[in-house]
Amino acid sequence: MADEKLRIVNTVCPRNCYSGCGMQIHLKGDKIIKVKGNENNPATRGKICLKGLSYPQMIDHPDRLLYPLKRTGARGTSQFERITWDEAMDLVYDHFKPMVENYGPESILYYVGSGNHGSIMQQYAYGFWYQLGGFTGTRGNLCDSAATEAIRYTFGAIKNSALTEIEHTELIILWGKNPSFTNMHSMYHIHKALEKGAKMVTIDPRLNESSNRSDLHLYPRCGTDGLLAIGVAKCMINKGLVDGDFINKHVLGYEAYKTMLDDYSMEEIARLTEVSVEAIQQLVDMMAAVKKFTIILGKGYQRYSNGGQTTRAICALPVIAGAIGKRGVGLYFNDSQRPMQKWSYYPPKPQHIRTTLNMGKLAEIDHMQEPPIKGMWIEAANPMTSNPNRHKLEKVLHGLDYMVCAEHFLTDTAKMADLVLPAAMFLEENDIIRSYGHSYLQLKQKVMACPGEVKTDKEIYHMLGKRFGFDMAYLPEDDATILRQVISASGYATTLEEMKETPYLFPEYDAIAYANKIFPTESGKIELYAESLQRDWGVHPLPIYVEPSESKYSNPEGFKKYPLQFMTAHAKERINSQFTQPDWLSEMVEPEMHIHTKDALARKIRNGDRVRVFNQRGEIYVKALVGEAVQSGTVNVFEGWYDHTHASVNKLTEDRATDFGHGAAFHNCLVEVEKVNGP
Question: What is the pLDDT of residue 678?
Fold first, then answer.
C-alpha cells in the first residue's frame, strides 16, 4: 500500500436526489482513502452530504452481497445458498422461458426503481427485454409524478431557474420543503438571500429542520395545501397583487379561475386548513411588501389523493402575480433543461409491453390477467420497504412463481426473492448521470473493480442475452464505445474525455426559467384552465380542491378509531431505504415519532416512551418525541426503516393513487398511538 501511487478520479453520486453531487475519489490501488466533493460542478460547489461520505463503508460493508444466492427455505426467511453465475443464468432461463412460451412475455413484471439514478446504462436493459418479446412494466413513480404532471400541464415544461437566482429574491416560501435534508445545496443560496435581507415563510405541517430562520410558519392540516393556496390567491386578488398585463399575454383561463375562487369562503378555508384567516393574510401582506417572491416546492404535499390539483393551485400564485420568467422570482420544483439522450442499441420494440400498473399500487399484480403475472425481475428498488401497504404487497409476492432481485445487500425485498444477484455499486461502473436539482450532465467513472463475483447490471444483461441466444449487437460490451455513441447521437457538445474533467451544461440552458415567455402547452400559454388535463385524466380543468381520502372529513368513521394523521417525511441519514448499512450513520438515529404535546397528554405519553402506532393495516413501534415539532392531530415518522427495526412505515399506508400522474398517495393515512413496553 505504501508504494502504491495515489489516484484521484472524478465521478458523481448517482442517487435519486436533487443534488447529483460531483465527487472526487482518492484511492491507492482499489482502496478508497478519501471521498470529497468536486468543485468542478458549479451547482454543488464541492459539497457532499453525510450519505456521500459514507460510501467507503457501503462498498466494503461485511454484509454486502458478493456472489449469487439461490433460495433454499420458505420465501422471506433469508435462507439461501451460494451458486455460480452459470447456475444463476440457467435458473433465469429455466423459469422465464416457459413463462413467455406458456403465458406470453407480459407474464413477467420488470420492476425498475431509481436506487441508482443513471441516465444511460438503464437503457441497456431493453436490449434484453425487447428481445424477450415484451414484459409488464410500471407507470408513474413513488416520488413526484403528480406534481410533475401538474407542472407540465400548467407550464408545458418541467424547469426552474438556476439555484443562484434564489439569492436575488426578497421573499422565500418553502412549501412542504425541507432542503436541509433533501436539497442541501439550495440552502447556501437561501442563506445568501436571507443575509441580503430577504424574508422566509415555511408552509409545512411539521416544524422542519430548514425553517428555523422563518419569519412565519403556517401549519396546514395534512392534504389541504391546495385549499390554502386558493385562500392565498383570494387574498392576493383582493390586495391587488395581480399582473394584468402578464395575464393577458401569457395566461389562459384566468377569468374562469377567478370565478372558481368565489366558490370558497375564507372562513371555510380557515376551518378546513386549520390556518387562520389572519395568518393567511399575514403571508399575503409579506408578499405585497416585496417586489420579488420565490416558492420552493417539496414533494410530500403532493403525495395525497389530491396531489396533482394541489400542485396546480400552488403554481397559480406566481402566475397571477406575473412572477414568472424574471430574476429572483418563480417556482422551484425540478429542473429538466437538457435534451434527452438517444440510445442507439434498441432492438425493434415488441408489441407485448403492458404498462398499466401503477408503481405505487404494485400489489395489484394479483388482479392482472391476460396474462397473469407469474415472474418478477427487480433492480434498483426495494418495494418491500418503499412501497405502500407492505402486508398486502408481501402476500401478493408470496404468490409469484419466480422472483429475481439484483441488489447490493439482502434487503427486505431481496429476502423475498428466489434468486438474488450481486449488483455493482456506483464506483464500480460507468454511466452518465442527470440530476433534477440542476441541469448538468456528469460522467460517473468506474474507479475500482467489482469485489467478489459482483457484476454490473450491464454485465448481467449481457450474460442473459447470451444464455437466451439473443442478438448481441443490441447488448454491446464496451462502456466507452456505448457512452461515446450516446453523446454523439444525443447532440451533446462535449466528448467523453471532456466529461471526465467537466460537467456538461447544454448551451441553450436558461438560468432564468421561462425568460423567453415560451410555454409549450397546447395553447402556448400558462394554462390555469387546462382542457387537456380534463381530457387526459378526467379531472377538473381548474385547480379545484377535493378533500383527500382517509381524512377526518372524508372518512369520519375511520377517524373515530384512528384520529391522527400519519406523515412519513424524508430522513437526513437515508434516501428512502438506502444508506441503512453504514454503522456510523445508523448509530446517529433510531426510529422515532414526533407527536404534539396536546396529543401526547391525551394518551399519557411522555417524551422517550415506547409507543405503538397502528391502524387497520398494521402496526409499528417507535420512541415518542413529544413537543411542538408537528401540528396537533399529526404524527411523523421518518420513512425508510427496514422491517427488523419494527418501524417500517409502509405497514400502515394504503396503496392509493394520486388524482393524476399515477403517483403514490402515501400520506392519506390515519393512525392511533398508544404507550407500550415493547417489542
Answer: 67
User: What whole-number distance in Å separates Cα of residue 96 and Cα of residue 313?
Assistant: 46
Q: At residue 586, does pLDDT exceed 70?
A: no
User: Nearest Cα to 477, choosing from 89, 66, 124?
Assistant: 124
Q: What is the pLDDT of residues 634-678, one digit of tens each?
A: 999 999 888 988 999 999 999 999 999 999 999 999 999 999 986
- Whether 68 has a pLDDT exceeding 60, the answer reads yes
| pLDDT for 30 | 81
Q: Mutual orientation of helices 254-261 and 307-320 as an angle, nearest 10°?
A: 110
Question: How far is Cα 105 from Cα 396, in angstroms, rounded to an integer?
Answer: 20
Q: Which of 22, 18, 291, 343 is nearest to 163 (CA)?
A: 18
Give the Cα separation of 674 and 206 in Å (integer).
Answer: 21
In sequence order, what DSSP letters do the residues of 302-326 get, joined into one string?
Answer: GSSTTHHHHHHHHHHHHHHTT-SSS
The topology under which CATH files domain 6-59 is N-terminal domain of TfIIb (2.20.25)
- Name the 3-class secondary structure at 332: strand
User: Taking Cα atoms as reference points, which of 265, 308, 259 lies closest to residue 144?
Assistant: 308
Say if domain 69-142+351-478 classifies as CATH 1.10.10.10.
no
- pLDDT for res 183: 83
Measured in degrees and rounded to the nearest 5, phi and psi for residue 227 equal -70, -40
Q: Among 569, 551, 572, 568, which Cα is nearest to 560's?
A: 551
For residue 128, with 0-12 CB atoms within 10 Å meaning exposed, 13-18 middle and 19 or more buried, which class applies?
Answer: buried
* CATH code, residues 556-675: 2.40.40.20
Structure confidence at residue 120 (pLDDT): 80
Which H helix or E strand runs over 26?
strand 22-28
Checking if the pLDDT of 393 tops 60, the result is yes
CA pair distance 559, 672, nearest whole angstrom: 9
What does the alpha-carbon distance between residue 78 and residue 275 come to, in Å, rounded to a whole number?
49
Taking phi over 0 as left and psi of -120 to 50 as alpha, with beta for the rest, 664 belongs to beta
- Computed over every residue of the chain, the mean pLDDT equals 93
* 521 neighbors 151 (Cβ within 8 angstroms): no
Task: Write the DSSP assignment of 400-467 as a string of letters.
Answer: -SEEEEEESS--TTGGG-SEEEEBPPGGGS-EEEE-SSS--EEEE---SPPPTT-B-HHHHHHHHHHH
pTM over 0.90: yes
Query: Domain spans of the chain?
Result: 6-59, 69-142+351-478, 160-333+517-537, 556-675
Which CATH homologous superfamily contains domain 160-333+517-537? Dimethylsulfoxide Reductase, domain 2 (3.40.228.10)
Q: Beta strand 293-297 with 171-175: parallel, antiparallel or unpaired?
A: parallel
Q: How confident is the model at residue 211 (pLDDT cuts 50, 70, 90)?
A: confident
* Alpha helices (H) in 541-592, listed in sequence order: 556-561, 583-586
State the greatest distance between any 2 C-alpha atoms of the chain, in Å, as a whole number.
76
All residues at 6 or more sequence positions from 469 whose CB lies less than 8 Å from its CB, including other chains: none
pLDDT at site 151? 97
Contact 92/128 with Cβ under 8 angstroms? no
Burial class (CB in 10 A: 0-12, 13-18, 19+), 538: exposed
Where do we find the cell 447532440? 491
Question: Does residue 579 carry a pLDDT above 70?
Answer: no
